[in-house]
Each structure stands twice: as structure tokens, then as C-alpha cells.
Amino acid sequence: MGVQKKYAVVMTTVANEETAGELARNILARKLAACVQVQGIRSYYKWKGETCSEPECLLLIKTRAALFAKLEAFIRANHAHETPEIVQLPINNGSAAYLRWIDMATGE
Asked: What are the sequence ranges of the domains in the chain?
């Protein structure tokens, strides 16, 4: 399997840093990712016909693409939003040592 098919960054957003930290720790504890970065952002979006704007935390989850279905199910089960953002972006290339670390941290 090529690099671009094996590794990914999954993005999701949550309402605050406390929720982000809890979700990140639980994702790591289940070996669904090697690393979760949390960044404060402001989101502008359309929801049920309204334009909304709220502060949120963006989680950048570094993982193996093969874990996406389990990770998605875990996020859905532990997320407060009716329709949470869960987006997978492929890692097209990366440091060999970093990619090996993702494998080791996720149990491969």
C-alpha cells in the first residue's frame, strides 16, 4: 500500500478545549491515532437555514487510513453535534521515521 493510501489526517471540531482534550486522550488511549493536535478556531457555517459563527476547537488527528471507520464511529459516539465534521485527508508523503511512528503508536 502506498503512502497516500496508508496514512491520513482526520479533522473534527468540538465546542471547547475541555471537550477537545477529553476526545483527544480517548482517541489516543484506544490507539486510533498517533497524535491529536488541538487548535482554537472560529467557524462560520450554515445550519438549518441560518448563518452561524462560533468559537470551536479543531482536532487534527494523525492516523492510519485503515483506522478511519473505527475512528469515525468513535467520534460519532462521543460527539455532541448532530452532524459532526469528520473529514479524512490523505497524507501523500511524509518522513519515513514519522510514518513508522504512526504505525507503532497505532499498533501496526
From this structure: 3-105
